[in-house]
Amino acid sequence: MAIALDNLRVGRRYRLVNLGEIRKIEIVSRLSGENFKIKDLETLEYYTIEELLRWGVGKDYDLDELY
Question: What's the predicted TM-score (pTM) here?
Answer without folding.
Answer: 0.87
